[in-house]
Design brief:
Layout (H helix, E strand, L loop, with lengths): L5 H7 L24 H13 L6 H4 L3 H8 L3 H29 L1 H20 L3 H31 L4 H30 L1 H23 L35 H5 L2 H22 L1 H6 L5 H26 L4 H20 L7 H15 L2 H10 L4 H18 L1 H11 L3 H19 L15
């Protein structure tokens, strides 16, 4: 049998086409001169771009004006946001099962419709109750539902080039980070914060609803195509990836496999440590002699590095064992924390921002597709939903150790010292997370 390169097998072997092993491969439809998967990728990028209403970088621009007008304390405002974040995390496993069952073609326009309506709801918020209601809608719909469905769509249409395709779609989120806060600031300064939410809601409806209805198809097999528009690759039987006839693991099977829990250490660690660092970045770097203006500017630098490095991270994802790429991300996070702990000069904060940006580029590419590469396509929404839920819950906890450290001990050093070792443990765990073998006799073929 023809042997494939280990890089190709690692990138494509585990996530199998949704066909029975006894069924002949679907024939490509010769009418499709342009692979429709690239259209799906464009819609997914647009969805990630318009997840902004529910994302922290967009919500942050509304904080000051809304606090002043609604007479809500910062503590209560933050508590409402935290409760909505936990609600988003708890909903993701159920949403993952839903998208596996009904697909993105029906779910994506429905989510866009609801998210746009949630933005209009925020524009009419009155008092603390309105803030709770608004956040309780935009966080689960924007940060949770829209992002999950967008990555699900890319995962269905790409296999061999899944890492690179996911990175391309992720550029929509990166562009959103760089542009939406600026748009919000301009609209709020010119017309008020209510107009800012109305503009966001209108953009969500205009950009997503009609394209989702007209263009989206759930899977390439629906059109007689293969993922990537290519024939299924041959798989080396000596490789450690699961065989191509396995359509995918069920969630119950995944939860009983130790590999899943080893992989889960990466998003949990990134959510907790990464969020803690960003949340306290101004004060944290300020304690090391970095000015507040410079500390804020470094957040933009991190986003820029992540954007530039994302395509490279996606390219590596398709060619190297995913577990080693994720381990490298954990080591970058460890170096970033250690650098802040011993920061010799304020100028070294530049290296800190670069390391966090590189770490983020891997999490947005390898960290997104590893679940499909290891556990297949059939239940990817449900499996990803569990993983993303854990990441969001960990992110909600991340700022607390820093707050306790500075309040109780007068220094961030204890929290930084603890956070150095957590990514190292995660790196060791994920390095041992070899792609698993599906339980014999329990193949979930569709």
């Amino acid at each position: 049998m023809k042997r494939e390169s280990p890089q190709l097998v690692e990138a494509a072997g585990a996530s199998a086409p949704l066909t029975s092993p006894s069924s002949p491969p679907p024939n490509r439809d010769r009418r499709y001169r342009f692979f429709p998967g690239w259209t799906m990728l464009g819609v997914a990028a647009a969805a990630q771009f318009m997840s902004a209403p529910g994302q922290s970088y967009s919500v942050a621009t509304f904080k000051g004006p809304m606090l002043n007008d609604l007479a809500v304390s910062e503590t209560r405002y933050s508590l409402a946001y935290g409760v909505a974040t936990i609600l988003s995390a708890l909903m993701l496993p159920f949403l993952g099962r839903l998208v596996d069952r009904i697909g993105a073609r029906r779910l994506l326009p429905a989510i866009a419709l609801l998210l746009g309506g949630a933005c209009f709801c925020m524009a009419t918020a009155q008092g603390l109750g309105g803030v709770y209601l608004g956040f309780g809608l935009i966080r689960p719909l924007g940060q949770g539902a829209l992002s999950l469905v967008a990555t699900w769509l890319v995962g269905e249409w790409f296999e061999v080039r899944r890492g690179f395709a996911t990175a391309l779609a992720g550029l929509g989120g990166s562009l959103s980070v760089m542009s939406i806060p600026l748009l919000n600031q301009w609209v709020i300064a010119t017309y008020g914060w209510q107009a800012g939410w109305i503009v966001l809601g209108t953009l969500v409806w205009a950009i997503l609803i009609l394209p989702s209805i007209l263009l989206v198809r759930d899977r390439p097999e629906d059109l007689g195509l293969r993922p990537d528009g290519l024939d299924a690759p041959e798989v080396d039987p000596e490789c450690d990836r699961q065989p191509p006839q396995v359509a995918g693991w069920t969630v119950s099977q995944v939860l009983r496999d130790t590999t899943f829990w080893k992989l889960l250490a990466v998003p949990a660690t990134s959510g907790m440590v990464g969020t803690g660092l960003i949340f306290h970045q101004v004060a944290l770097l300020g304690s090391r002699g970095v000015s507040a203006t410079w500390a804020v500017s470094l957040i933009s630098l991190q986003a820029g590095v992540a954007t530039l490095a994302m395509l490279g991270a996606g390219w590596l994802t398709d060619r190297l064992p995913n577990r080693y790429v994720l381990a490298a991300a954990m080591l970058m996070l460890t170096m970033a924390v250690a650098l802040v702990l011993v920061l010799p000069t304020p100028a070294m904060a530049l290296l800190y921002a670069v390391l966090l940006g590189l770490h983020g580029s891997i999490l947005r590419s390898t960290g997104v597709v590893v679940w499909l590469n290891y556990f297949g396509r059939a239940h990817q929404g449900a499996v990803r939903g569990v993983a993303f839920s854990v990441m969001i819950l960990a992110a909600a906890v991340g700022p607390l150790p820093f707050a306790l450290s500075i309040d109780q001990l007068g220094s961030y050093d204890v929290a930084l010292g603890a956070f150095i070792f957590i990514p190292i443990v995660a790196a060791c765990l994920v390095c041992t997370a070899r792609p698993p073998t599906h339980p014999q006799g329990r193949l979930d073929v569709v």
